[in-house]
TrEMBL record:
This is GTP-binding protein 10 homolog. Residues 158-353 form the OBG-type G domain. Residues 342-369 form a coiled coil. It is found in: Nucleus, Nucleolus. GO terms for molecular function: GTP binding; GTPase activity; magnesium ion binding. GO terms for biological process: ribosome biogenesis. Residues 22-157 form the Obg domain. It holds the Pfam family GTP1_OBG. Belongs to the TRAFAC class OBG-HflX-like GTPase superfamily. OBG GTPase family. The keyword Acyltransferase does not apply. GO terms for cellular component: mitochondrion; nucleolus. It comes from Phaedon cochleariae (Mustard beetle).
Amino acid sequence: MVQITNSLLAKVRKITRRFLREGFRDNLKIYVQGGAGGNGLPKFGGVGGNGGNVVVAAKEDISLETVFKSNKTKQYIAKGGRHASHNFILGIPGEDLRFEVPVGVSIITELGKKLGELNNEGDELVLAKGGTGGHAKNGFLGTKGQAYFVSLDLKLIADIGLVGFPNAGKSTLLRSISQAKPKIASYPFTTVKPNIGIMVYKDHRQISMADLPGLIEGAHANRGMGHEFLKHVERTKLLLMVVDINGFQLGPQYPHRSCLETVMLLIKELEMYNEDMLMKPSMILINKMDSEGALERFQEIRDHLKNLPEFFKQYPEEMRPNKTLNFCDIIPISAKEHPDDVEHVKQKLRKLLDVLAELEKEEEDQSTEIIENVRKSLKEKGPVLV
């Protein structure tokens, strides 16, 4: 079995650290705090306004990275209710704080309690209730709103998502690397719904892999099974691109695309749908290396794969992506004929996911420390009787 070198691990750590800093997230820890209730006015029986709630709503076509960029403090604090006064016997309620998250998010408190799931666009959930306004039964003292940390967890359909044009060999790879039994044939669109395979290792570690319906050019505009595919791939932790060394042609009426053109167009489709997906950790497999002349073709394109932006420049602007995937590794394989190739890929994927998990833990620990300091500085003072 091929060993993973220290230099590869260093490269993986460097790339995945950048992804965590700049790109894809499947988890975001935030601080939520309902507004404090306003104080009542005992002299006239005035009632303080209730504090505002923190409310979250599900929205399609956004990511947790979008949520993070819109509020990098990761604090969501609703407005407090107004105190009752001579002019306003009923204090004005605090305004609710609303924000949006991707469809498919689960919300879990720091104590492990699940507050709910947002599975459909428009679903709403109150994360932190505002405090009650002061009135006769509570001594006219407004109460504090709920306050705690919560994790926004994007539910993944699999750890790894296979990305490629039809007939690139994704189903063959999934069958070889796991116990899944996808339909396999020498024509496009054998995969019409996600096939989930489980890779099992000798120490019983399990990693899930999804073979998703094949992309075609124009998928971002919902051609073929475009949006269905892209929504699935959005909910995986790692992209594993599979391309045919011989290129791809959807049918006689379509142009033949070379291996490098295939890579370019796949990246373009991902970017056109949601450029945040280009921030995901990724690896590329150049498949069907058992075919005649494959080794020579791979040697011709290997350097281009390491410098894709330069290769893209020779194509019209409408074909080339503005950004690219930064592959952690480029591996030539024959998923059908060479079991050793498949085992090599299996070990590489495990190591990459392990490094990614380690770096996510480091980032979460740092984030928790920062938010705890902020939380202390934001401690509300007790309400004062007026």
